[in-house]
Amino acid sequence: MDILQTSMSIIAGAGDAKSCAMEAIYSAREGNYEEARISLEKAKEALRDTHSIQTDLITKEMQGEKMELALIMVHAQDHLMSAVLIKDLAAEIVTMYERFTK
Fold first, then answer.
1. CA angle at residue 21 from 31 to 84, to 5 degrees?
2. How far is residue 15's CA from residue 51's CA, in Å, rounded to a whole number?
3. Active-site positions, per UniProt (predicted)?
4. Which in 13, 25, 58, 95 has the greatest CB count within 10 A?
């Protein structure tokens, strides 16, 4: 897979994770905690798959394979980082909504 395809795969996976995390927050706000937990699990799965792409890139580089540094890859890494952050915050927000309604 070339750098453009790899970058786009990371961006797409991160976008899926962010969407699922936000859906979890929206569900929790409406009191649908089971649905929120399912959305959080979907976000985790999307991140797991996307993180494996990143891990493969890092492993290849550590093994001496040179990677082209492209702005699109920097952009992809930014998306991945923000997706991880949003997923973590969404999990905390869902928990807070649950506690506040009890």
1. 145
2. 13
3. 75 (tele-phosphohistidine intermediate)
4. 13
pLDDT band per the 50, 70, 90 thresholds, residue 102: confident
Total residues belonging to the chain:
102
Q: Which of 59, 82, 80 is nearest to 13 (CA)?
A: 80
Q: Annotated binding site, which residues?
A: 78
Can you say how many angstroms the Cα of residue 64 is from the centroid of all Cα atoms in its chain? Answer: 27
- Known binding-site positions for Mg(2+): 78
Q: What is the per-residue pLDDT across 56-73, written as a single tens digit (0 to 9) for each?
A: 999 999 999 988 789 999
Q: Please give the tally of structural domains in the chain.
A: 1
Q: What residues act catalytically?
A: 75
Lookup result for tokens 């990371």: 10
Measured distance CA(63)–CA(85) in Å, rounded: 29
pTM, whole model, 2 decimals?
A: 0.90
Would you give the distance in Å from CA 57 to the centre of its chain?
Answer: 17
12: CATH: 1.20.58.80
